[in-house]
Amino acid sequence: MDRYDLALIGFGGVNRALAELIDERGAALTSELGFELRVVAITDLRLGSLMQADGIDLSAVLALEPGANFAPFAGGDPEPRNEYVIRNTTADIVVEATFTNPVDGEPAISHVRWALESGKHVTTTNKGPVALAGAELRALAADHGVRFEHEGAVLSGTPILRLAERMFSGLRIRGVQGILNGTSNYVLGRMEAGLSLPDAVAEAQELGYAEADPTADLEGSDVQLKVVILANEVLGADLTTADVSRRGLSTVSAAEIAEAQRQGRRWKLIGDAHRNDDGSVTASVAPVALPLDHPLAGVSGATNAVAFDTDLLGTVAVSGPGAGRVETAYALLSDVIAIHAGRGALIGAATDV
Ligand SMILES: NC(=O)C1=CN([C@@H]2O[C@H](COP(=O)(O)OP(=O)(O)OC[C@H]3O[C@@H](n4cnc5c(N)ncnc54)[C@H](O)[C@@H]3O)[C@@H](O)[C@H]2O)C=CC1
Ligand SMILES: N[C@@H](CC=O)C(=O)O
Prior knowledge:
Elements: E1 2-9, H1 13-33, E2 35-44, E3 48-51, H2 58-62, E4 76-77, H3 82-88, E5 93-96, H4 108-117, E6 121-124, H5 127-143, E7 148-149, H6 160-167, E8 173-179, H7 182-192, H8 197-206, H9 215-218, H10 221-234, E9 244-246, H11 254-262, E10 265-275, E11 281-291, E12 303-310, E13 314-321, H12 325-341, H13 343-351
Parallel strand pairs: 1-2, 1-5, 5-6, 6-7, 9-11
Antiparallel strand pairs: 2-3, 3-4, 8-10, 8-12, 10-11, 12-13
Helix pairs in contact: 1-12, 3-4, 4-5, 5-10, 7-8
Bound molecules: 1,4-dihydronicotinamide adenine dinucleotide and the ligand N[C@@H](CC=O)C(=O)O.
């Protein structure tokens, strides 16, 4: 029986949900998936670090009282010694789920680099490293014979990146457009129902959808990162966030939301990237008042949707959760499954000189 030891970097909503999944459903997952999962290290800004090569008792760390930290545990330290833990842990896979930094991607990019350099696979839901250093990190992973997986960076657990990578061979993708942020979509729906913006945002935070700073959700920088990822990975572009024009929800007033409802329209924050006739790619994020019969107008709550414009199939649309702790933890599990499925190929690639 194979076993993967994990190091969890960041122990907030998503990595806690993964720990709960392993703790509560570990035996069932082992028999279904053919491998065992064990957590051997955890770091968090607020909790410090914990390293136990024989496996951490997840029920004990999940039961920690607010304000407590890892110091009293064997192998515990009140400081989040990220670099030391990532480089020295016995883990096979580093699971990066700290805050997304939409400006320079740090310190998550460094976390991923340290893990790959020390021969560990990485799975992350953090959009910073993928959007801002994706090519460099993929190359680093290849150099070290390990994988850099990041399904959860777009549409949380809804597997659109792997779908596009694996199932669209032979198609030419002309563009990709969609609702790519769960929080803003949820907030727009709640404002249509009469809630104030702050109340709607507070609900999204409580439900685990929002970024640590929800401005990134509302003002489009989260979608900007996702558009960069889609443009680069699906359209083969080489965009940075500076190439993606951005307007957020503050450009739409409550009165405009009510007026759109009267006109049979619904505001949605739309991310778009499309290939032009000259081969260049144009990308944007902006609120759009869609007519109710538009396919994206009915996508509500934290559900997201992506429409791929292809030459041979026309439009292929996928809809599913775009945010949520458990949904995003599933993305991490799906990455581990992909690492497990590809392990023979990796051994071959690493020895193939
Ligand atoms: N919650 C969601 O629905 C989704 C989240 N994501 C991404 O997944 C990541 C994690 O999300 P959540 O768990 O919801 O966020 P969260 O805010 O609940 O948890 C992040 C955790 O990381 C810790 N942290 C921050 N900086 C750190 C550092 N330098 N070293 C150690 N720990 C650090 C924080 O103390 C916090 O406990 C974020 O990058 C987010 O953008 C992606 C898809 C969906
Ligand atoms: N805050 C993000 C989480 C997923 O990326 C969102 O609301 O979509």
